[in-house]
Write a structure and sequence with these properties.
Structural class: alpha/beta
Largest sheet: 5 strands, parallel
Shape: globular
Order of helices and strands: HEHEHEHEHEHEHEH
Helix content: 25-40%
Strand order of the largest sheet: 3-7-6-4-5
Distance between the termini: 28 Å
Number of strands: 7
Radius of gyration: 19 Å
Length: 231
């Protein structure tokens, strides 16, 4: 989950990042796209102005662009990165998520859409979660959008915007309604959020991420309460 603003600023200082630095985030050649969107999303919700994601490092290497290896060159002491303000409007907590789930399909409800990046088996409750003791399943009304469907199967790169738009429409996602992205721990939920941005799908002002995601949800709710569904 997100660190405090103070912990975030200290981390930026320790690795020498300054507030006015332009940042490009990427995953390993083997992964393609996985956790880089979460890093970029974290930087953005803490207000860092220049954040980009490379789509992706595997293609960068295969297409012969320059790379470096060896020890990282030391920098001169910590930077002066200021303590930022969290853009809380982009983050959903457990209490609000619980109200969204309870309001699902109720007449007059806002119609918030929850997109879940976990595999179909975990979402349906037919496959186990990787964390021992955690039940699988999904939140009431959530839509399964596995991360694998957002990526090119050969390169691991995020699909082009027009293909992503078709995918979201095929899942029944309405771009006119608010969207909350979720996953197992809040990491691949950011891949959905990035894909929505790449597809120019939905309103950026009503696109948010449930930081606790399934790990928090399954620990604090139960199937008996009706807040964990299996299908």
């Amino acid at each position: 989950m997100l660190p405090t603003a103070e912990v975030f600023a200290k981390a930026m200082q320790d690795i020498g990042i300054r507030r006015d630095d332009e940042i490009c985030v990427y995953d390993t050649q083997e992964l393609g796209i996985f956790s880089a969107p979460r890093v970029a999303w974290t930087l953005k919700v803490f207000g860092h102005p220049g954040v980009n994601i490379l789509n992706n490092f595997r293609l960068w290497v295969e297409q012969g662009y320059p790379t470096e290896s060896g020890e990282i060159e030391p920098f001169e002491g910590p930077s002066q990165y200021p303590t930022p303000t969290l853009e809380a409007s982009k983050v959903v907590g457990f209490a609000e998520m619980k109200e969204v789930a309870k309001d699902h399909a109720k007449e007059g409800a806002e119609g918030v859409q929850v997109l879940d990046a976990r595999s179909q088996g975990r979402w349906a409750g037919s496959a186990p979660e990787p964390r021992p003791g955690l039940p699988s399943g999904h939140m009431p009304g959530s839509i399964n959008v596995p991360i694998s469907e957002l990526l090119d199967p050969d390169t691991g790169a995020l699909l082009p915007g027009d293909e992503l738009r078709k995918l979201f429409r095929s899942k029944g996602v309405d771009p006119e309604k608010p969207i909350i992205s979720s996953c197992g721990t809040g990491v691949t939920a950011a891949v959905i959020d990035t894909a929505l941005g790449e597809a120019n799908f939905g309103n950026t002002e009503t696109r948010r991420l449930y930081d606790g995601s399934w790990t928090e949800w399954a620990q604090r709710t139960s199937e008996a309460s009706g807040l964990i569904r299996k299908s």
